């Protein structure tokens, strides 16, 4: 039945044609391919390397803190812009883990209900129609979406392997620089797994001063690094004068569903953010903030998780290398990002195949090998495999199960010859 409501949708979500477009988005294509694969091979296990969230629960210590605080009547109400107790803990954590000194717990930190809303709200603080957000791609698209919703424009900065997946700031035109207000970065980077360097961050700070932009560094995977110690943008001189960093409890503490994050850095940005946030939400439930305090006091929780991902990622690198891929250990995150092959060689009665892009390769992997990955065709053809796949036995993370799954992947990938 036609409804007058169909004609009322805002242009930002498609206007009158909202819900009627026939474009199928990437994650829906993956879902459909998984369904088709299960129907074709009902007895074969589908291995999901496409996940983007931790396999494990939050630590007992953190769950206990939530339960205790939830029983205390004084914690029942609106939390507004957050409890001071959590704000006080953030500078201590930032110093302990990242060597960031002297963050002011009153004015330079604020909690958020996950980094996703924080990345959305920040556009409301700065973007007027016609303003530009500089956005790395491939990547997490929330700030770009909201920039457009406010009538702003997005300038894509491609992340290329030859530049270590760091954006080339010199390639941005003067005209675009003149209109830019926000520079969104995300290191360690989803999906490339790249980590930023101090010298890159120095370049970013110079760029921000020269072009008068605000840096928003999305640190959702900050403490999950391999080979090098975690690095905060805020640890560099000048960073706090030009930007903020957004840290999340989701990946570091296995708390995706809890919705807790914090922003730290420039006082004026934090002040603007607080004002906008206050008009969108009433703060995260106080017991969740109290549980968050326990996380910040126990960074060894993240360290244990980091070690698990490191072990899995290094095994995944070896398997992919054996299958002919150019795989190297990522600098951070829990993702492995590898170039998609151009096709496969003919073998027996199996014809040679060719893949026009990463999406076709990823569809092949799901439908023929029952391995789910996420394809990215934004800057070259790559697929992302996650090390946070589920490998449990009797409710516990099991090394034996992990080995079995990885062996299965190896067998499935090494019985074809890929062409790169
Ligand atoms: C780069 C990046 N930023 C932000 C988020 C969102 O994290 P949160 O759970 O804190 O909203 C994600 C989640 O996948 C992410 O990959």
Describe the 3D structure.
With 420 residues, the chain is an alpha/beta fold. The chain folds into two domains: 149 residues, Aspartate Aminotransferase, domain 1 (Alpha-Beta Complex); 239 residues, Type I PLP-dependent aspartate aminotransferase-like (Major domain) (Aspartate Aminotransferase, domain 2). 40% of the residues lie in helices and 16% in strands. It contains 14 helices and 17 strands. The strands form five sheets. It has a seven-stranded mixed beta sheet, sandwiched between helices. Helix 1 runs parallel beside helix 13, helix 2 packs antiparallel against helix 11 and helix 3 packs parallel to helix 11. The longest helix is centred in the C-terminal third of the chain and has 23 residues. The radius of gyration is 22 Å and the shape is globular. Bound molecules: pyridoxal-5'-phosphate (PLP). The site of pyridoxal-5'-phosphate has 13 residues, from helix 4.
Q: Main attributes?
A:
Aspartate Aminotransferase, domain 2; 17 strands; 420 residues; binds pyridoxal-5'-phosphate; 3-stranded antiparallel β-sheet; globular; 2 domains; 14 helices; 7-stranded mixed β-sheet; alpha/beta; Aspartate Aminotransferase, domain 1
Radius of gyration, Cα only, in angstroms? 22 Å
| CATH hierarchy class name of the largest domain | Alpha Beta
Fourth-level CATH superfamily of the largest domain: Type I PLP-dependent aspartate aminotransferase-like (Major domain)
Identify low-pLDDT runs: none
User: The biggest beta sheet, please?
Assistant: 7 strands, mixed
Name the structural class.
Answer: alpha/beta
Count all strands and give the number: 17
Number of helices: 14
Ligands, deduplicated: pyridoxal-5'-phosphate
Number of individual domains: 2
């Amino acid at each position: 039945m036609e409804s007058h409501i169909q004609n009322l949708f805002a242009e930002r979500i498609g206007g009158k044609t909202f819900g009627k477009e026939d474009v199928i988005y990437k994650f829906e294509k993956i879902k459909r391919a998984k369904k088709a694969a299960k129907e074709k091979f009902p007895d074969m296990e589908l291995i999901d390397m496409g996940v983007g969230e931790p396999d494990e629960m939050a630590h007992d210590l953190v769950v206990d803190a939530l339960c205790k605080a939830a029983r205390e009547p004084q914690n029942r109400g609106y939390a507004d812009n957050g409890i001071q107790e959590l704000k006080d803990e953030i500078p201590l954590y930032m110093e302990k883990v990242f060597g960031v000194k002297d963050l002011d717990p009153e004015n330079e930190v604020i909690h958020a209900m996950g980094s996703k809303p924080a990345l959305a709200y920040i556009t409301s603080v700065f973007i007027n129609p016609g303003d530009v957000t500089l956005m790395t791609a491939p990547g997490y698209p929330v700030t770009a979406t909201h920039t457009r919703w406010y009538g702003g424009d997005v300038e894509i900065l491609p992340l290329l392997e030859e530049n270590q997946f760091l954006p080339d700031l010199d390639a941005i035109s003067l005209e675009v620089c003149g209109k830019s207000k926000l520079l969104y970065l995300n290191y360690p980077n989803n999906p490339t797994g790249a980590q930023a360097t101090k010298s890159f961050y120095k370049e970013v700070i110079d760029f921000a001063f020269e072009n008068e932009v605000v840096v928003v560094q999305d640190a959702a995977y900050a403490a999950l690094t391999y080979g090098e110690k975690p690095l905060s943008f805020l640890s560099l001189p000048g960073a706090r004068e030009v930007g903020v960093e957004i840290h999340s409890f989701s990946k570091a503490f296995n708390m995706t569903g809890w919705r807790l994050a914090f922003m730290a850095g420039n006082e004026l940005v934090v002040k603007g953010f607080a004002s906008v946030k206050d008009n969108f939400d009433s703060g995260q439930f106080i017991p969740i903030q109290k549980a968050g305090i326990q996380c910040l006091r126990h960074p060894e929780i993240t360290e244990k998780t980091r070690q698990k991902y490191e072990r899995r990622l290094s095994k995944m690198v070896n398997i992919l290398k054996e299958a002919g891929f150019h795989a190297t250990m990522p600098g951070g995150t829990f993702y492995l990002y590898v170039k998609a092959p151009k096709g496969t060689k003919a073998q027996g009665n199996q014809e040679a195949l060719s893949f026009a892009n990463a999406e076709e390769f990823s569809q092949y992997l799901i439908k023929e090998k029952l391995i789910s990955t996420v394809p990215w065709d934004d800057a070259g053809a790559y697929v992302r495999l996650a090390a946070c796949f589920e490998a449990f036995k009797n409710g516990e993370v099991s090394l034996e199960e992990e080995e079995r799954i990885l062996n299965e992947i190896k067998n499935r990938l090494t019985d074809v010859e890929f062409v790169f």
